[in-house]
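Support request from a user on the community tier.

User writes: "When I paste my structure tokens into the form, the page sometimes reloads and wipes my input. The last time it worked, I copied everything first. Here is what I submitted, just in case something in the input itself triggers the reload:"
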């Protein structure tokens, strides 16, 4: 009888403890799932206007140290030791997080962190990468003062600023690098005919909650889909066809931060759709301004480039 009467007394603190634990978990879950609510503009758009910088550089694909070393030796054979480029005063490393390089890799799907090339396309891309001065068309469009394309133009660069403007029915992105711009209608209007091909593509957007979804088509095949700064690197030469289709997702994390994700498909070049994702923008300090980018004025890079190449 005594044991029977004691059971409720023994179970009571256990039950109370379980209830407290579950309540705490529920509270934590609620905090984790709390969605930031941005200010809304008069037309109902979430307000993301302002000037932003890239929070960090990011490795593009998952390469081994051995692969990088082998490629580096090939490049020395092609153009001699790396002569370097601009000084660090242009990179604004003091504004970037930590050492300036983000963790992980831009390519998040497939899980191996590699672009899923068709065999013939991989062979072509590798040849361009390993022989970047073989012909003028192999040289990175950015090095030639031409637009980077989409999504490549969205990656961090040495010219670090972006400005976002919003008008009724449109989102406008101004790039400090190469003074590029994108005007993104969000009114449901269709893409132009496929014969229209643009350096940055034709963008059509819509808001899904806190995420700006941008559908990009009508791209010229003169750009790379991804590629390191300066036109040399393991992912250099990542060409595509005019069939390239990119779906971007700019997601508001908080008042100062925007994440980026893009799904990329081109049935002429890749074996499957693939995805990149990274933190794209951090709000710039109040005194930050975008500088004029005048790439062509007095630029002799293309004239001088053959001088550093051992390729006929």
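"...and here is what came back when it finally went through:"
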């Amino acid at each position: 009888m005594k044991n029977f009467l004691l059971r409720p007394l023994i179970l009571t603190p256990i039950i109370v403890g379980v209830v407290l634990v579950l309540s705490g978990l529920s509270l934590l879950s609620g905090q984790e799932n709390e969605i930031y609510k941005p200010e809304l503009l008069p037309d109902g758009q979430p307000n993301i206007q302002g000037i932003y910088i890239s929070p960090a550089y990011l490795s593009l694909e998952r390469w081994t140290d051995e692969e990088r070393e082998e490629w580096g030796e090939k490049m020395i054979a092609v153009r001699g030791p790396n002569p370097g480029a601009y000084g660090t005063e242009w990179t604004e490393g003091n504004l970037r997080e930590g050492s300036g390089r983000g963790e992980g890799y831009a390519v998040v799907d497939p899980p191996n962190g590699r672009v899923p090339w068709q065999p013939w396309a991989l062979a072509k891309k590798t040849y361009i990468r390993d022989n970047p001065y073989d012909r003028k068309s192999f040289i990175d469009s950015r090095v030639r003062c031409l637009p980077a394309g989409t999504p490549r133009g969205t990656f961090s660069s040495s010219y670090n600023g972006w400005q976002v403007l919003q008008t009724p029915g449109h989102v406008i992105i101004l790039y400090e690098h190469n003074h590029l711009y994108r005007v993104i209608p969000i009114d449901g209007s269709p893409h132009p005919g496929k014969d229209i091909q643009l350096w940055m593509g034709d963008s059509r957007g819509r808001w899904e909650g806190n995420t700006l979804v941008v559908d990009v088509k009508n791209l010229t095949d003169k750009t790379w889909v991804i590629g390191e700064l300066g036109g040399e690197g393991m992912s250099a030469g990542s060409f595509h066809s005019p069939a390239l289709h990119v779906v971007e997702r700019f997601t508001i994390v908080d008042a100062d931060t925007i994440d980026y994700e893009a799904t990329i498909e081109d049935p002429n070049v890749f074996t499957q759709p693939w995805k990149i994702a990274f933190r794209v923008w951090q709000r710039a300090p109040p005194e930050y301004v975008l500088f004029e980018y005048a790439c062509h004025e007095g630029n002799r890079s293309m004239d001088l480039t053959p001088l550093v190449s051992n390729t006929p």
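Agent notes: The reload is a front-end session timeout and is unrelated to the input. The first helix runs from residue 2 to 32. Residues 50-83+105-308 form one domain. Escalated to web team.
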